[in-house]
Design a protein that fits this description.
With about 325 residues, this protein is mainly α. It has twelve helices and two strands; from the N terminus they run H-H-H-H-H-H-H-H-H-H-E-E-H-H. It has helices at about 30-35, 40-75, 80-85, 100-130, 135-145, 150-165, 170-195, 200-205, 210-240, 245-250, 270-280, 285-319; strands at about 260, 260-265. The longest helix has about 35 residues, at about 40-75. The radius of gyration is 30 Å and the shape is flat. Mean pLDDT is about 85; it is low at about 1-5.
Length: about 325
């Protein structure tokens, strides 16, 4: 094939394209027509809707910020070391605290996490590995249904299975009720995190002779751990603020969870959510102020837990 005219010979002028008619891609566009103008119906409609959405968002934030300001202003005044070390006061008694409620909340949420983690993560591994089977689809559908499960029904279930079987309210019954509410969040977020692991990593592991179990424990779970921990933190944040399930299972107590010098989890247990519920409706100023202080502490705990979950989520995105 001849290249004459494409590559210039010595002494010839450099090659130039055959057509010198290069059209301007912006030719015929009137930029003045693209500018925002209130005289154009679409622009006016867009601006009006933007202002409406902004205004509605600000209105929706008013109750949230008013509640936070109330908690900080009224509940913050009662914050002291005594609140975290003393027991709830009697109706006409002054002072007091809610140290047993903080301990009970941490204990029940911790026990619920211990119950939920192995079941939730193993279920997520099964869903990620067998995602196209009918059983996996049924389990996934059930987990999604549980995300909208009324919390009070979880308490009723734990009441019928634990409280009636053991003969009394206890921290164990409360942790079982909370674990039911935590389970779907852990399952769905863990499955999503495991599914996001690149297929090449799994294929490389199998290509090196690893079994399916070794691939799961040494490749999938370590790689997906930030996403799994994000779901765990979100589930803990939800469980810490639940009240209705604990009314049917753990009830409340004005004492520490100590019996004969040992921790006793088979007795009624105090929690921050139930303490707020009980004290906020009392006609005594001291109890109402304690409920506001307890609400502030609970909000801070939930906020910190959510921030930890967001940190794990950001770490997963970076990886």
């Amino acid at each position: 094939m001849s290249t004459r005219g494409l590559v210039p010979n010595k002494g010839e002028a450099p090659f130039e394209p055959a057509s010198k008619d290069v059209r301007d891609p912006f030719e015929g566009i009137d930029f003045a027509e693209l500018e925002l103008s209130l005289y154009r119906p679409r622009t006016l409609f867009s601006i009006v809707l933007t202002w409406i959405v902004t205004g509605m968002t600000l209105i929706a934030l008013v109750p949230l910020f008013s509640l936070l300001l109330t908690l900080v202003w009224r509940g913050g005044k009662r914050l002291s070391l005594a609140l975290f070390t003393q027991l709830p006061p009697a109706p006409l008694e002054q002072g007091g605290g809610f140290g047993n409620a903080i301990l009970g909340t941490l204990l029940m949420v911790g026990m619920a996490t211990i119950i939920t983690l192995p079941i939730g993560i193993l279920t997520a591994v099964f869903l990620a590995q067998q995602k196209d089977t009918r059983l996996a689809e049924a389990v996934r559908f059930s987990a999604k249904v549980l995300t909208g499960f009324p919390s009070i029904l979880a308490g009723v279930f734990a009441y019928g299975t634990i409280v009636l079987a053991t003969g009394g309210y206890s921290a164990v019954a409360g942790s079982v009720a909370l674990s039911i509410l935590m389970l779907p969040t852990v399952i769905l977020t863990s499955e999503s995190a495991i599914t996001m692991v690149p297929v090449k990593m799994k294929e490389a592991s199998i290509g090196m002779g690893a079994t399916s179990t070794q691939t799961v424990w040494m490749v999938l779970l370590p790689t997906a751990m930030p996403g799994i921990l994000t779901g765990v933190m979100l589930a803990i944040a939800r469980a810490a603020g639940e009240t209705a399930p604990l009314l049917f299972t753990a009830l409340f107590s004005n004492y520490w969870l100590v019996s004969r010098g040992k921790l006793d989890v088979m007795q009624p247990t105090a929690s921050l959510a139930v303490l707020i519920y009980n004290f906020s409706g009392m006609p005594f100023k001291n109890q109402v102020e304690l409920s506001l202080a307890a609400a502030l502490v609970l909000v801070v705990l939930v906020l910190v837990t959510n921030l930890i979950g967001q940190a794990f989520s950001a770490r997963q995105v970076v990886q």
